[in-house]
Prior knowledge:
The chain is α+β, with helices and mostly antiparallel strands. Helices cover about 35% and strands about 15% of the residues.
Amino acid sequence: MNFLTRSGLRNVWRHHRFHPFSLESNLFRKMSSVAALAKLQDPLKALVTGSAEAGSPAYGQSEKDQAEVAEWIEKISAGEVVKPESLKDLESQLTSRTYLVSNYLTAADVALYGALHPILSQLQPPQYYSHPAITRYFDHIQNRASVRKTAESLSPAFSLVPFDLENAPKLERKADPPKEKKKPAVPAAEGAAAPAKKEKKDKKDKEAAAVSVEATEVKEEAAPAAGKAQKKEKKEKEKKPAAEKKAPAAEDAGEPVPSMIDLRVGKIVDIKVHPDADGLYIEQIDFGEETGPRTVVSGLVKYIPIDEMRDQYLVGVCNLKPANMRGVKSFAMVLCATHKDGKEAGIELVRPPAGSKPGERIYFEGAEFENATPLSQLNPKKKIFETVQPGFTTLETHEAAWVNPVTKSVHRIRTKDDVCKAPTYIGASLS
Protein backbone atom coordinates (compact mmCIF):
# COMPACT_ATOMS: atom_id res chain seq x y z
CA MET A 1 0.00 0.00 0.00
CA ASN A 2 1.52 3.33 -1.12
CA PHE A 3 0.59 5.23 2.00
CA LEU A 4 2.88 2.95 4.07
CA THR A 5 6.03 3.42 1.91
CA ARG A 6 8.80 5.72 3.05
CA SER A 7 8.18 8.24 0.26
CA GLY A 8 4.46 8.03 0.94
CA LEU A 9 4.98 8.75 4.63
CA ARG A 10 7.24 11.70 3.79
CA ASN A 11 4.60 13.24 1.52
CA VAL A 12 1.81 12.72 4.01
CA TRP A 13 4.01 14.16 6.81
CA ARG A 14 4.67 17.31 4.77
CA HIS A 15 0.95 17.70 4.16
CA HIS A 16 0.19 17.27 7.89
CA ARG A 17 3.33 18.97 9.30
CA PHE A 18 1.25 21.31 11.44
CA HIS A 19 -1.07 18.47 12.59
CA PRO A 20 1.16 15.45 13.39
CA PHE A 21 -1.58 13.70 15.36
CA SER A 22 -3.95 13.74 12.36
CA LEU A 23 -1.47 11.53 10.46
CA GLU A 24 -1.43 8.95 13.23
CA SER A 25 -5.23 9.01 13.49
CA ASN A 26 -5.65 8.73 9.69
CA LEU A 27 -3.41 5.66 9.53
CA PHE A 28 -5.23 4.13 12.49
CA ARG A 29 -8.61 4.61 10.76
CA LYS A 30 -7.37 2.97 7.58
CA MET A 31 -5.91 0.07 9.52
CA SER A 32 -9.29 -0.33 11.27
CA SER A 33 -10.99 -0.65 7.88
CA VAL A 34 -8.41 -3.21 6.75
CA ALA A 35 -8.97 -5.21 9.95
CA ALA A 36 -12.72 -5.20 9.37
CA LEU A 37 -12.17 -6.19 5.73
CA ALA A 38 -10.16 -9.22 6.83
CA LYS A 39 -13.26 -10.61 8.54
CA LEU A 40 -15.14 -10.92 5.24
CA GLN A 41 -15.28 -14.36 3.68
CA ASP A 42 -14.28 -15.11 0.08
CA PRO A 43 -15.49 -14.49 -2.57
CA LEU A 44 -16.91 -11.32 -0.93
CA LYS A 45 -13.49 -10.24 0.34
CA ALA A 46 -11.99 -10.81 -3.13
CA LEU A 47 -14.74 -8.66 -4.64
CA VAL A 48 -14.04 -5.75 -2.27
CA THR A 49 -10.25 -5.84 -2.59
CA GLY A 50 -10.43 -6.35 -6.36
CA SER A 51 -12.78 -3.39 -6.80
CA ALA A 52 -10.45 -1.20 -4.73
CA GLU A 53 -7.49 -2.16 -6.91
CA ALA A 54 -9.58 -1.35 -10.01
CA GLY A 55 -9.91 2.27 -8.96
CA SER A 56 -12.55 2.64 -6.24
CA PRO A 57 -11.67 4.68 -3.10
CA ALA A 58 -11.36 1.89 -0.59
CA TYR A 59 -11.38 3.30 2.92
CA GLY A 60 -12.71 6.87 2.72
CA GLN A 61 -11.22 10.30 2.13
CA SER A 62 -11.52 11.70 5.65
CA GLU A 63 -11.16 10.38 9.17
CA LYS A 64 -14.93 10.54 9.67
CA ASP A 65 -15.58 8.63 6.42
CA GLN A 66 -12.93 6.03 7.27
CA ALA A 67 -14.58 5.39 10.63
CA GLU A 68 -17.98 4.91 8.94
CA VAL A 69 -16.54 2.58 6.29
CA ALA A 70 -14.92 0.42 8.98
CA GLU A 71 -18.21 0.36 10.95
CA TRP A 72 -20.27 -0.70 7.91
CA ILE A 73 -17.83 -3.45 6.89
CA GLU A 74 -17.82 -4.71 10.49
CA LYS A 75 -21.64 -5.00 10.46
CA ILE A 76 -21.67 -6.61 7.00
CA SER A 77 -19.04 -9.19 7.99
CA ALA A 78 -21.18 -10.09 11.03
CA GLY A 79 -24.17 -10.65 8.73
CA GLU A 80 -26.32 -8.13 10.63
CA VAL A 81 -27.23 -5.86 7.72
CA VAL A 82 -28.76 -8.41 5.34
CA LYS A 83 -30.85 -10.39 7.82
CA PRO A 84 -34.55 -10.45 6.76
CA GLU A 85 -35.52 -8.50 9.87
CA SER A 86 -32.90 -5.82 9.05
CA LEU A 87 -33.98 -5.13 5.45
CA LYS A 88 -36.73 -2.72 6.50
CA ASP A 89 -34.19 -0.60 8.39
CA LEU A 90 -31.73 -0.79 5.46
CA GLU A 91 -34.52 0.28 3.06
CA SER A 92 -35.12 3.34 5.24
CA GLN A 93 -31.41 4.22 5.38
CA LEU A 94 -30.91 3.92 1.61
CA THR A 95 -34.02 5.93 0.66
CA SER A 96 -32.09 9.21 0.69
CA ARG A 97 -28.59 7.89 -0.11
CA THR A 98 -26.62 7.14 -3.25
CA TYR A 99 -23.71 5.64 -1.28
CA LEU A 100 -23.37 4.43 2.29
CA VAL A 101 -20.66 6.94 3.23
CA SER A 102 -20.53 10.53 1.95
CA ASN A 103 -21.08 11.02 -1.81
CA TYR A 104 -18.65 8.54 -3.38
CA LEU A 105 -18.12 4.77 -3.71
CA THR A 106 -16.22 3.04 -0.89
CA ALA A 107 -15.36 -0.48 0.15
CA ALA A 108 -18.49 -0.44 2.33
CA ASP A 109 -20.70 -0.12 -0.78
CA VAL A 110 -18.94 -2.98 -2.56
CA ALA A 111 -19.22 -5.16 0.55
CA LEU A 112 -22.95 -4.44 0.91
CA TYR A 113 -23.58 -5.12 -2.80
CA GLY A 114 -21.80 -8.49 -2.50
CA ALA A 115 -23.70 -9.41 0.68
CA LEU A 116 -27.05 -8.53 -0.91
CA HIS A 117 -26.34 -10.41 -4.17
CA PRO A 118 -27.54 -13.89 -3.03
CA ILE A 119 -30.84 -12.31 -1.90
CA LEU A 120 -31.58 -9.87 -4.74
CA SER A 121 -30.59 -12.33 -7.49
CA GLN A 122 -33.45 -14.69 -6.50
CA LEU A 123 -36.24 -12.11 -6.35
CA GLN A 124 -38.94 -11.64 -8.97
CA PRO A 125 -40.36 -8.17 -9.84
CA PRO A 126 -43.19 -8.22 -7.26
CA GLN A 127 -40.64 -8.97 -4.55
CA TYR A 128 -37.92 -6.46 -5.37
CA TYR A 129 -40.55 -3.79 -6.10
CA SER A 130 -41.34 -3.94 -2.38
CA HIS A 131 -37.77 -2.73 -1.60
CA PRO A 132 -37.36 0.14 -4.10
CA ALA A 133 -34.46 1.90 -2.35
CA ILE A 134 -32.43 -1.31 -1.90
CA THR A 135 -33.09 -2.34 -5.52
CA ARG A 136 -32.08 1.08 -6.89
CA TYR A 137 -28.92 1.15 -4.75
CA PHE A 138 -27.94 -2.44 -5.64
CA ASP A 139 -28.42 -1.84 -9.38
CA HIS A 140 -26.34 1.35 -9.23
CA ILE A 141 -23.43 -0.33 -7.43
CA GLN A 142 -23.40 -3.47 -9.62
CA ASN A 143 -23.06 -1.27 -12.73
CA ARG A 144 -20.09 0.75 -11.46
CA ALA A 145 -17.17 0.00 -13.80
CA SER A 146 -14.69 -1.03 -11.09
CA VAL A 147 -17.26 -3.28 -9.38
CA ARG A 148 -18.50 -4.84 -12.62
CA LYS A 149 -14.95 -5.63 -13.79
CA THR A 150 -14.10 -7.46 -10.57
CA ALA A 151 -17.52 -9.14 -10.35
CA GLU A 152 -17.16 -10.60 -13.84
CA SER A 153 -13.78 -12.05 -12.91
CA LEU A 154 -15.49 -13.83 -9.99
CA SER A 155 -18.51 -15.00 -12.03
CA PRO A 156 -20.93 -16.66 -11.44
CA ALA A 157 -20.75 -15.62 -7.77
CA PHE A 158 -21.62 -12.00 -8.63
CA SER A 159 -23.37 -12.24 -12.00
CA LEU A 160 -25.27 -9.20 -13.27
CA VAL A 161 -28.82 -9.18 -11.86
CA PRO A 162 -31.42 -7.82 -14.34
CA PHE A 163 -34.14 -5.57 -12.93
CA ASP A 164 -37.32 -4.37 -14.63
CA LEU A 165 -37.34 -0.86 -13.22
CA GLU A 166 -39.39 0.64 -16.06
CA ASN A 167 -42.57 -1.04 -14.83
CA ALA A 168 -41.95 -0.51 -11.12
CA PRO A 169 -45.05 0.90 -9.39
CA LYS A 170 -44.86 4.59 -8.59
CA LEU A 171 -44.12 5.37 -4.97
CA GLU A 172 -47.06 6.82 -3.07
CA ARG A 173 -46.07 9.87 -1.10
CA LYS A 174 -48.36 10.71 1.80
CA ALA A 175 -49.53 14.31 1.90
CA ASP A 176 -48.73 16.35 4.98
CA PRO A 177 -51.67 16.59 7.41
CA PRO A 178 -53.62 19.84 7.06
CA LYS A 179 -52.56 22.54 9.45
CA GLU A 180 -55.07 23.55 12.09
CA LYS A 181 -56.28 27.09 11.69
CA LYS A 182 -55.80 29.19 14.77
CA LYS A 183 -58.99 30.70 16.12
CA PRO A 184 -58.88 34.50 16.43
CA ALA A 185 -58.44 35.75 19.93
CA VAL A 186 -61.63 36.93 21.63
CA PRO A 187 -61.49 40.00 23.87
CA ALA A 188 -62.01 39.22 27.53
CA ALA A 189 -65.31 41.06 27.91
CA GLU A 190 -66.75 39.59 24.73
CA GLY A 191 -65.51 36.12 25.68
CA ALA A 192 -67.27 36.31 29.03
CA ALA A 193 -70.54 37.35 27.40
CA ALA A 194 -70.41 34.61 24.72
CA PRO A 195 -71.73 31.70 26.91
CA ALA A 196 -74.74 33.76 27.99
CA LYS A 197 -75.59 34.71 24.38
CA LYS A 198 -75.22 31.10 23.25
CA GLU A 199 -77.49 29.85 26.04
CA LYS A 200 -80.17 32.39 25.11
CA LYS A 201 -79.97 31.44 21.41
CA ASP A 202 -80.19 27.68 22.20
CA LYS A 203 -83.31 28.29 24.29
CA LYS A 204 -85.04 30.11 21.40
CA ASP A 205 -84.08 27.33 18.96
CA LYS A 206 -85.54 24.64 21.24
CA GLU A 207 -88.81 26.53 21.61
CA ALA A 208 -89.09 26.96 17.81
CA ALA A 209 -88.35 23.25 17.27
CA ALA A 210 -91.06 22.25 19.77
CA VAL A 211 -93.66 24.44 18.01
CA SER A 212 -92.64 22.92 14.64
CA VAL A 213 -92.98 19.35 15.98
CA GLU A 214 -96.43 20.06 17.43
CA ALA A 215 -97.61 21.57 14.13
CA THR A 216 -96.33 18.57 12.20
CA GLU A 217 -98.05 16.10 14.53
CA VAL A 218 -101.36 17.96 14.15
CA LYS A 219 -101.05 17.92 10.36
CA GLU A 220 -100.22 14.21 10.27
CA GLU A 221 -103.19 13.34 12.49
CA ALA A 222 -105.47 15.29 10.18
CA ALA A 223 -104.06 13.74 7.02
CA PRO A 224 -105.89 10.69 5.60
CA ALA A 225 -104.37 7.23 5.91
CA ALA A 226 -103.63 7.15 2.19
CA GLY A 227 -101.41 10.24 2.53
CA LYS A 228 -99.35 8.59 5.28
CA ALA A 229 -98.84 5.50 3.15
CA GLN A 230 -97.61 7.61 0.24
CA LYS A 231 -95.08 9.39 2.48
CA LYS A 232 -93.80 6.08 3.84
CA GLU A 233 -93.41 4.64 0.34
CA LYS A 234 -91.57 7.77 -0.83
CA LYS A 235 -89.11 7.56 2.08
CA GLU A 236 -88.36 3.89 1.35
CA LYS A 237 -87.66 4.72 -2.32
CA GLU A 238 -85.29 7.48 -1.28
CA LYS A 239 -83.36 5.08 0.96
CA LYS A 240 -82.84 2.40 -1.71
CA PRO A 241 -80.45 4.31 -4.01
CA ALA A 242 -78.19 5.11 -1.05
CA ALA A 243 -77.84 1.39 -0.28
CA GLU A 244 -77.21 0.57 -3.92
CA LYS A 245 -74.39 3.12 -4.13
CA LYS A 246 -72.20 1.12 -1.72
CA ALA A 247 -69.07 -0.03 -3.58
CA PRO A 248 -68.52 -3.79 -3.72
CA ALA A 249 -65.55 -5.19 -1.75
CA ALA A 250 -62.32 -5.37 -3.74
CA GLU A 251 -61.47 -8.89 -4.89
CA ASP A 252 -58.02 -8.68 -3.29
CA ALA A 253 -59.33 -7.36 0.05
CA GLY A 254 -58.20 -9.11 3.22
CA GLU A 255 -55.01 -10.99 4.08
CA PRO A 256 -52.97 -12.41 1.15
CA VAL A 257 -53.64 -16.13 0.66
CA PRO A 258 -52.10 -18.57 -1.86
CA SER A 259 -55.38 -19.14 -3.70
CA MET A 260 -55.13 -15.56 -5.01
CA ILE A 261 -52.23 -16.72 -7.21
CA ASP A 262 -53.15 -18.09 -10.65
CA LEU A 263 -51.08 -21.25 -11.29
CA ARG A 264 -51.48 -23.17 -14.55
CA VAL A 265 -49.82 -25.97 -16.51
CA GLY A 266 -47.69 -24.62 -19.34
CA LYS A 267 -45.60 -26.11 -22.14
CA ILE A 268 -42.55 -24.46 -23.72
CA VAL A 269 -43.09 -24.41 -27.50
CA ASP A 270 -40.13 -22.17 -28.37
CA ILE A 271 -37.07 -20.86 -26.51
CA LYS A 272 -34.00 -18.73 -27.23
CA VAL A 273 -31.39 -16.69 -25.34
CA HIS A 274 -32.26 -13.01 -24.92
CA PRO A 275 -30.26 -11.03 -27.53
CA ASP A 276 -29.39 -8.29 -25.00
CA ALA A 277 -28.91 -10.36 -21.85
CA ASP A 278 -26.94 -13.62 -21.92
CA GLY A 279 -28.43 -14.72 -18.60
CA LEU A 280 -32.06 -14.64 -19.76
CA TYR A 281 -34.21 -16.99 -21.83
CA ILE A 282 -37.14 -15.77 -23.94
CA GLU A 283 -39.74 -18.54 -24.00
CA GLN A 284 -43.03 -18.98 -25.79
CA ILE A 285 -45.23 -20.95 -23.37
CA ASP A 286 -48.57 -22.51 -24.24
CA PHE A 287 -51.06 -22.03 -21.38
CA GLY A 288 -54.01 -23.32 -23.40
CA GLU A 289 -55.30 -19.84 -24.25
CA GLU A 290 -57.12 -18.89 -27.46
CA THR A 291 -54.78 -15.92 -27.87
CA GLY A 292 -51.84 -18.31 -28.29
CA PRO A 293 -48.59 -18.80 -26.32
CA ARG A 294 -47.40 -16.15 -23.88
CA THR A 295 -43.94 -14.57 -24.07
CA VAL A 296 -42.08 -15.26 -20.82
CA VAL A 297 -38.58 -14.07 -19.82
CA SER A 298 -36.72 -16.06 -17.15
CA GLY A 299 -33.19 -15.88 -15.74
CA LEU A 300 -32.36 -19.59 -16.05
CA VAL A 301 -29.58 -19.64 -18.68
CA LYS A 302 -26.81 -20.31 -16.13
CA TYR A 303 -28.78 -22.95 -14.27
CA ILE A 304 -30.74 -25.04 -16.78
CA PRO A 305 -29.30 -25.82 -20.27
CA ILE A 306 -31.50 -24.78 -23.17
CA ASP A 307 -31.85 -28.38 -24.39
CA GLU A 308 -33.36 -29.31 -21.01
CA MET A 309 -35.92 -26.50 -21.37
CA ARG A 310 -37.25 -27.27 -24.85
CA ASP A 311 -40.75 -28.80 -25.02
CA GLN A 312 -40.91 -29.10 -21.23
CA TYR A 313 -44.10 -28.97 -19.17
CA LEU A 314 -43.97 -26.58 -16.22
CA VAL A 315 -45.96 -24.58 -13.67
CA GLY A 316 -46.57 -20.94 -14.57
CA VAL A 317 -47.63 -18.01 -12.41
CA CYS A 318 -50.07 -16.32 -14.78
CA ASN A 319 -51.52 -13.29 -12.98
CA LEU A 320 -48.43 -11.22 -12.21
CA LYS A 321 -48.32 -7.74 -13.70
CA PRO A 322 -46.45 -7.94 -17.08
CA ALA A 323 -42.82 -6.88 -16.65
CA ASN A 324 -40.33 -5.45 -19.15
CA MET A 325 -37.10 -7.48 -19.03
CA ARG A 326 -34.34 -5.83 -21.06
CA GLY A 327 -36.76 -4.59 -23.70
CA VAL A 328 -38.93 -7.74 -23.86
CA LYS A 329 -42.24 -7.83 -21.98
CA SER A 330 -42.81 -10.96 -19.91
CA PHE A 331 -46.41 -12.08 -19.32
CA ALA A 332 -45.91 -14.84 -16.73
CA MET A 333 -43.32 -16.43 -14.44
CA VAL A 334 -41.89 -19.93 -14.50
CA LEU A 335 -42.15 -21.53 -11.04
CA CYS A 336 -38.79 -23.04 -10.09
CA ALA A 337 -37.30 -24.82 -7.10
CA THR A 338 -34.05 -23.37 -5.72
CA HIS A 339 -31.82 -25.72 -3.74
CA LYS A 340 -31.94 -25.15 0.02
CA ASP A 341 -28.22 -24.21 -0.09
CA GLY A 342 -28.86 -21.43 -2.60
CA LYS A 343 -29.09 -20.99 -6.36
CA GLU A 344 -25.42 -21.84 -6.87
CA ALA A 345 -26.30 -25.35 -5.66
CA GLY A 346 -28.92 -25.62 -8.40
CA ILE A 347 -32.32 -24.60 -9.77
CA GLU A 348 -34.87 -26.90 -11.43
CA LEU A 349 -38.35 -26.59 -12.90
CA VAL A 350 -41.36 -27.53 -10.79
CA ARG A 351 -43.11 -30.26 -12.79
CA PRO A 352 -46.86 -30.83 -13.14
CA PRO A 353 -48.10 -34.46 -13.02
CA ALA A 354 -47.52 -36.65 -16.07
CA GLY A 355 -50.33 -36.35 -18.60
CA SER A 356 -51.17 -32.75 -17.68
CA LYS A 357 -52.40 -30.47 -20.45
CA PRO A 358 -51.49 -26.80 -21.14
CA GLY A 359 -53.86 -24.45 -19.33
CA GLU A 360 -54.93 -27.01 -16.73
CA ARG A 361 -55.73 -25.44 -13.36
CA ILE A 362 -53.27 -25.89 -10.49
CA TYR A 363 -54.49 -25.20 -6.97
CA PHE A 364 -53.64 -25.57 -3.28
CA GLU A 365 -55.14 -28.39 -1.22
CA GLY A 366 -57.48 -27.40 1.57
CA ALA A 367 -61.19 -26.59 1.79
CA GLU A 368 -60.48 -22.86 2.01
CA PHE A 369 -58.38 -22.86 -1.19
CA GLU A 370 -59.54 -25.64 -3.55
CA ASN A 371 -62.61 -23.89 -4.92
CA ALA A 372 -61.34 -20.30 -4.69
CA THR A 373 -60.94 -18.25 -7.86
CA PRO A 374 -57.51 -16.59 -8.37
CA LEU A 375 -57.31 -12.83 -8.89
CA SER A 376 -57.33 -11.64 -12.49
CA GLN A 377 -54.04 -9.79 -11.81
CA LEU A 378 -51.98 -9.37 -8.66
CA ASN A 379 -51.61 -5.74 -7.59
CA PRO A 380 -47.89 -5.08 -6.88
CA LYS A 381 -48.85 -2.56 -4.20
CA LYS A 382 -50.69 -5.27 -2.22
CA LYS A 383 -47.50 -7.42 -2.09
CA ILE A 384 -49.58 -10.59 -2.29
CA PHE A 385 -47.03 -12.83 -3.99
CA GLU A 386 -44.08 -11.75 -1.82
CA THR A 387 -46.18 -12.25 1.33
CA VAL A 388 -47.23 -15.78 0.39
CA GLN A 389 -44.03 -16.95 -1.39
CA PRO A 390 -41.84 -17.57 1.73
CA GLY A 391 -44.18 -20.49 2.56
CA PHE A 392 -43.51 -22.25 -0.79
CA THR A 393 -41.29 -25.30 -0.38
CA THR A 394 -40.75 -28.94 -1.36
CA LEU A 395 -41.50 -31.74 1.10
CA GLU A 396 -39.44 -34.87 1.76
CA THR A 397 -41.49 -36.51 -0.99
CA HIS A 398 -40.30 -33.77 -3.42
CA GLU A 399 -43.92 -32.56 -3.57
CA ALA A 400 -44.46 -28.81 -3.99
CA ALA A 401 -46.47 -27.23 -1.17
CA TRP A 402 -47.32 -24.07 0.74
CA VAL A 403 -46.81 -24.24 4.50
CA ASN A 404 -48.93 -21.80 6.50
CA PRO A 405 -46.41 -19.83 8.61
CA VAL A 406 -48.93 -19.41 11.45
CA THR A 407 -50.68 -22.80 11.72
CA LYS A 408 -47.88 -24.85 10.04
CA SER A 409 -50.57 -26.66 8.04
CA VAL A 410 -49.33 -28.12 4.73
CA HIS A 411 -51.20 -27.43 1.50
CA ARG A 412 -49.82 -29.36 -1.48
CA ILE A 413 -49.83 -27.77 -4.94
CA ARG A 414 -51.68 -30.00 -7.39
CA THR A 415 -53.87 -30.54 -10.44
CA LYS A 416 -57.07 -32.58 -10.25
CA ASP A 417 -55.02 -35.73 -10.96
CA ASP A 418 -51.89 -35.48 -8.81
CA VAL A 419 -49.36 -33.27 -7.00
CA CYS A 420 -46.68 -31.10 -8.66
CA LYS A 421 -43.07 -31.98 -7.77
CA ALA A 422 -39.45 -30.86 -7.96
CA PRO A 423 -37.50 -33.79 -9.47
CA THR A 424 -34.63 -33.92 -6.96
CA TYR A 425 -34.82 -31.17 -4.30
CA ILE A 426 -36.09 -31.40 -0.71
CA GLY A 427 -36.66 -28.27 1.36
CA ALA A 428 -36.26 -26.07 -1.72
CA SER A 429 -37.62 -22.54 -2.03
CA LEU A 430 -40.15 -22.03 -4.83
CA SER A 431 -40.20 -18.79 -6.80
